[in-house]
């Protein structure tokens, strides 16, 4: 995809994972696959690799990224996951946080953060991000959804529904029942602690992680999008097979005990992976409001 074409900027924040990336692609590829497979809009995507120890390589990527921003070619941003810690200070992350704070989050463009992307946005906005006292949260996990996300004006979360074909009397109907729980792949041991930034609400919670995502709510003069930032602690872009291979990778690397691994593998093999529903949410969120109103 040419950098001269309007596009969604996928900011890749991890380096390849041996044995995983070769089979499934990197986190940016996984995200693009999710959005393409769950939407009807023909978004274009450009990946920008921002996790690198090579300063010259980073300079070039940032030059391309800033040029795309200056030329109004970027329609939205997606921040991927990473094995890095959002509270650490390697040079590439210090630079990225500055760029996120002073550029991305100041633009009137939709921003999506996934796992590490969620944590680094929260960190830049002043939240505490640190190791969880509960240890790893891995594999497909059931999230309790915060009802408030459905109350947003033109909420993209209304995509989290299940069609009911019959009403209580047995008559045909086309009602949509909104979910109060959702199953997503998790793969983290860092969490966002404490209160959320002003004008943000929580997406949901689990037993191990009370903040499973953040949703910004614009309370300004109406000239901006109602909602500019959506983040998820889980990985909607991970397929079940990828999740199982990642669990094995973590177990082989000594990051998970046998008990943790077997429990997570069982849940991942038996629970319904509903990441595709979050893919629909992301599609609706990224869609420009002018186009969305035309389609409604």
Strand content: 15-25%
The share of residues in helices is 25-40%
Average pLDDT value?
A: 90
Order of helices and strands: EHHEHEHEHEEEEEEEEEEHHHH
Count of individual beta strands: 14
Radius of gyration, CA atoms, in whole angstroms = 19 Å
The CATH topology: Rossmann fold
Number of domains: 1
- List the uncertain runs: 290-296
CATH superfamily: Class I glutamine amidotransferase (GATase) domain
* End-to-end separation: 29 Å
CATH architecture grouping? 3-Layer(aba) Sandwich
Content-based structural category: alpha/beta
What's the CATH class, please? Answer: Alpha Beta
Strand order of the largest sheet: 2-1-3-4-14
Largest sheet, in brief, is:
5 strands, parallel
What is the approximate shape? Answer: globular
- Please report the number of helical segments: 9
Concise structural overview:
With 296 residues, this protein is α/β, with parallel strands linked by helices.
Write out key terms for the chains shown.
disordered C terminus; 296 residues; five-stranded parallel sheet; 14 strands; Glutamine amidotransferase domain-containing protein; alpha/beta; Rossmann fold; 9 helices; three-stranded antiparallel sheet
List the helices and strands and how they pair.
Layout: E1 7-12, H1 21-24, H2 27-38, E2 45-49, H3 55-70, E3 74-79, H4 91-102, E4 111-114, H5 116-124, E5 128-131, E6 137-145, E7 161-166, E8 172-178, E9 181-188, E10 190-193, E11 200-202, E12 204-205, E13 214-216, E14 229-232, H6 240-252, H7 258-270, H8 275-286, H9 289-295
Parallel strand pairs: 1-2, 1-3, 3-4, 4-14
Antiparallel strand pairs: 5-10, 6-9, 6-12, 7-8, 11-13
Helix pairs in contact: 2-8, 6-7
């Amino acid at each position: 995809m040419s950098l001269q074409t309007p596009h969604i900027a996928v900011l890749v924040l991890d380096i390849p994972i041996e044995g995983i990336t070769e089979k499934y692609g990197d986190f940016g590829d996984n995200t693009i696959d999710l959005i393409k497979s769950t939407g009807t809009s023909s978004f274009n995507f450009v990946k920008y690799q921002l996790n690198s120890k090579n300063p010259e390589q980073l300079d070039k990527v940032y030059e391309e990224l800033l040029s795309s921003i200056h030329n109004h070619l970027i329609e939205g941003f997606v921040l991927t996951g990473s094995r890095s810690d959002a509270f650490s200070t390697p040079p590439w992350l210090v630079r990225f946080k500055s760029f996120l704070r002073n550029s991305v989050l100041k633009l009137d463009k939709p921003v999506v953060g996934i796992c590490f992307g969620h944590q680094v946005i929260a960190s830049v906005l002043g939240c505490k991000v640190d190791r969880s006292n509960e240890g790893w949260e891995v594999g497909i996990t059931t999230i309790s959804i915060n009802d408030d996300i459905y109350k947003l004006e033109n909420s993209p979360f209304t995509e989290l529904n299940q069609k009911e074909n019959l009403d209580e009397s047995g008559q045909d109907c086309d009602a949509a029942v909104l979910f109060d729980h959702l199953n997503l792949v998790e793969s983290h041991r860092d969490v966002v602690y404490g209160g959320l930034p002003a004008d943000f609400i929580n997406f949901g919670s689990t037993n191990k992680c009370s903040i499973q995502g953040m949703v910004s709510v614009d309370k300004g003069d109406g000239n901006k999008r109602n909602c500019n930032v959506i983040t998820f602690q889980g990985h909607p872009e991970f397929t079940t097979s990828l999740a199982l291979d990642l669990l094995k990778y973590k177990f082989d690397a000594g990051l998970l005990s046998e008990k943790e691994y077997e429990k997570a593998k069982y849940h991942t093999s038996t629970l319904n992976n509903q990441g595709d529903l979050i893919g629909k949410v992301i599609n609706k969120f990224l869609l420009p409001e002018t186009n969305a109103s035309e389609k409604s």
